[in-house]
Amino acid sequence: MADRQQTDPAPQWWSRPEGTADGRPEAVPAPRPGAGDEAGRGAWREPAAEDRVPAAREAGPDGEPPAREVRYDPWGEQPLQVVDRGKDRRGFRLWQVAALSAGTALLAGGVGGYVGVLAERQSSTRLELPQAAVADKGRAPESVAGIAATALPGVVTLHVRGEKGSGTGTGFVLDEQGHILTNNHVVADSKEIAVTFSTGESVTAELVGRDSGYDLAVVKVSGVRGLRPLSLGNSENVKVGDPVVAIGAPFDLSNTVTAGIISATGRPVTAGGDKGDGSDISYVDALQTDAPINPGNSGGPLLDARAHVVGINSAIRGADKDDPSRQGGSIGLGFAIPINQGKRVAEELIRTGRATHPVIGVTLDMDYTGDGARVGDKGEDGKPSVVADGPGARAGIKAGDVITKVDGQRVRGGDELIIKIRAHRPGDPLTLTVLREGRERTLQVVLGSANGS
Fold first, then answer.
1. Active-site position among 73, 179, 185, 285
2. Catalytic pick from 215, 290, 304, 365?
3. Which of 65, 138, 187, 251 holds its CA 20 to 30 A away from the CA of 279?
């Protein structure tokens, strides 16, 4: 083939109508695709007798094109195609093209560009692959697409600049006054906060208040019209297996929608602690979900099937730090702050800029490794571990007591006790099961209040 490409002229396609007046095929040169008139013509060569294909029928009446045509290769060596001309039922002219031989198929593979152009030029039928028709673009409200369509206008992306650099998080609109709920760790140490809506509009925001213990914060935008607050659900109604949708900006990919289910409820989760003094540790009685959540989703809404917010996405669980294969993204273990807790904290932050924490007025021994939460022998700065006239003292709690249950739910450590208490409001009554000197007893306590940080 290499020698032939060097010595043979450029291929020319020839149309050879059969059934002419003298019975001899007439040579009609056809231009090569893309070539000029002169370059598109060449001398016709008489094909071998055995290569000729007799006419299938005579030419049509009144000078119509012949009923049958044979197309040869550029050198007149092999008949390539037969073109039968007929008419469909509506009188339109139809051209049916079929390959003549296996040898033709192999040759067509080598010069397929020319065969394709010829067939397209000679055929009045255009190739069109089957495709579904345009359908109704509406979606059921409870579908993932329906939930996303409802919620996206109320979800925002936060770009924050601070002393330690810049970062991205998510938030959602609470009211028409411009209040937006997000995570504390998204805006902590911030100097400048930019809020971008799903429409692409971007404005600056001011910090209204934040609380590290709950890992929640509220920012506010001004001068924005058409705000779309999200509807708040009730996290007490959430059950394991319920479908949920998460919306956020993972790795700064705004308006990302993922879906999953509620994997567990009441999951005790602590996060933070980077400062070392415990002031930035958050305690969450979390909703666990397998909806993919990644860095940048923090502060975004977790929505139920009615597009109501049931949680605020806040944390993910990765592989152990010592594991060389640790993943930095979602492995199906995401955690959200229940919206009931988020609603109370947001209301306090909007009203006063600070949130209150429910307390029982005792200092815990966080080094205790046994089952339950042990009340310390001494408190901070050598003070008693049970605050005088505090909620715990009034309930009868003493130093050294081990609290094993809260409202009948087992407590395995000090962190879990704090989380169970933080899930309530100041003033709520609780039933504590306490182990003292080997004996179990039940105490009733009314939660007190302390200002958060």
1. 185
2. 215
3. 251
